[in-house]
Amino acid sequence: MQKILIVDDEIMMQKIASKVLSTKYEIVCASSGAEAIKIFETEKPDMVLSDLMMPEMDGYELHRILQEKTSGAVPIMFMTADDSDESESHGFEIGAADYIRKPLKADILMRRVSNILENLDKVQNLQQAADIDTMTGLLNKAAATREMEKICAKSGGVFLMIDLDSFKLVNDIHGHAMGDKILIAFSEILRHITQESDLVGRMGGDEFVAFCQNVNSEKAVANKTKYLNEKITDVAKKLMGENMNIPLGVSIGAVFVPHCGTDFADIFKKADSALYKIKQNGKHGYSIFNDEEKDTETLEIPTDITQILGERNIVGAYVVDFEAFKIIYRHAVRMVTAYRKDVQLLTINVDTDDESIADEIIELAKFNLRVSDCIAHSGKNKILILLPETKENELNFMKLKLSAKISTSKNLSKYKIAFEVKKL
Predict the structure, then answer these.
(1) How confident is the model at residue 225 (pLDDT cuts 50, 70, 90)?
(2) Following DSSP, what letter does each residue of 151-205 receive, concatenated?
(3) What pLDDT score does 263 carry?
């Protein structure tokens, strides 16, 4: 039931208006502007019906203060015995929803109040529709950004930037209709790790965000990440079959608020930085941004150096940038020279200048090669793969496997792929 705050210094007028409106609305009353402000903050009415001329604080001043507290979101209608057009005109100028003269007529009062609240419902419904992502029912990018700015400024908790790993392969192999089903299912899974007071939004594509209030431990983030990864795999197999071999999963960049700040733009950048780390370190996991991190030159090394050097989650072949690949390649050459190891360099050339196609092949290769293999992007259309402990027959098998995967990919099959092999 919608709630109306009636403000009038005459108790009799409160009773008259209350009697008329209480048949359809919940009513609260105040006898002064100061009292109305206190009641407004606790009762949060949908509308205010206020006398215009009151001692100490008139209706105009009350309206101004309430607008400041609500950004003008709650409509106010003035009541007055003044029959001059000047006061009515001024009331509308400052943003009043309506204006009614005393003595009050029951049918006119009810009709005008109903019109105001019905219009308010329409505006709120339109606003809600504009805020919702139509596919998932979550907040869309604009609404999520707006609401995250508010909640980060005033609440404590954890902001999560959430990315679906390997989602593009779903669209490429099974089509966009199946991709939409996965996104809808994932949005439902996200709702299970959040409370009603939390915020969850879709930023576009396979990127989501969430703010979980009063969550301040890494264990909670770890549990949520584990749950999301388990459930998305279960759902994917139900939708695409038990033989589904797409490495769907979830990567999360987390930032604790207010520990790492309260400005959402800054928090978003920090979460993006944390997400990038987990994306480069095996995916299917989480990374928490640490505002106190130092450069490795000044970092105090803990007793167990492997905590810094080791990977948190090892999944698929090792994907690195070209500069890192050069270092790994040079070390492999030394290993071959010293220990006569079998190491192969496999180069994949793609007949296109579209770098995103090479990126797709890297993603596909990552989950069809060994965890000991190393992959990097070189130029627009070249992929380098370092294969340690690989004999010629094993190399041929890997080439056939990759060729088969590429040729059956809806998005990749139209491109010419050429393999080159060099033994170190």
Answers:
(1) very high
(2) HHHH--EEEEEEEEETHHHHHHHH-HHHHHHHHHHHHHHHHHTS-TTSEEEEEET
(3) 93
